[in-house]
Each structure stands twice: as structure tokens, then as C-alpha cells.
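dumping this here before i forget
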Amino acid sequence: MDPGALTDDTPRPEGTMSPDARPDDDDPRRLREEIDQLKAAVTSHAVVDQAIGMMVALGRVTPEQGWDVLREVSQHTNIKLRAVAEMIIVWGQQGELPADVRAVLEETLDKYGPTEIPGAPPPQ
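structure:
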């Protein structure tokens, strides 16, 4: 070993860190931001999961297909996936869904199998 090499036991000048320490590990603001981001991610995940559940129940698709439906509706309407999921949950609670989103949702669900959206006009 190099006689001048620093080891974990080597005393360090004040303000320096060990080689495996990361800067800002103890920064309370950074930790608070990270906690807030994790909370938002968990909430978003729950909203999306609920909307997938609605697709499974109402659209008679698999959970994987329910995810694909949400993703495609998001892409075709240029609305963030979480916002689409929120709209679908509101639709389930209040029966309201913007016409453009409803049209894309119906079309997308039709791709994945025989479906009938409650309140939709009968097929012609």
C-alpha cells in the first residue's frame, strides 16, 4: 500500500469527506424534496392503478391491456397519463368524461376486445 494513501481511518481535514460519502446526504432541503417526490409518485401510481382497474372491470381487458389503453389514450389526446387516469376516475364517480377523450377511449378499448362502455350509444 502507498504510504501516502488515505484510508478510512486516516484523519481528514475539516470539511472533507470520506471517499464513499456523497455530498448533500444530510441536506434537509434535499431530503424533503426527495420525500415530496416519492409521495407524489406513490399517489400518482395509485391513481393510475385505479384507472387500470376501471378499464379491467368496464372494458373487460387484462391489467396489461388496461395499462396499454391508458397509455394510448394519453398519447392520442396529448394529455399526461396521470391526468387521463384522473379523468377516468371522475368519469366512474360522476359519469363525466370529455367527448374527445371518450371517443379515443372507446376506439382504443375496441382494439383490445369486445367492449361496451356504460352510457355509450348502441353500436350501429
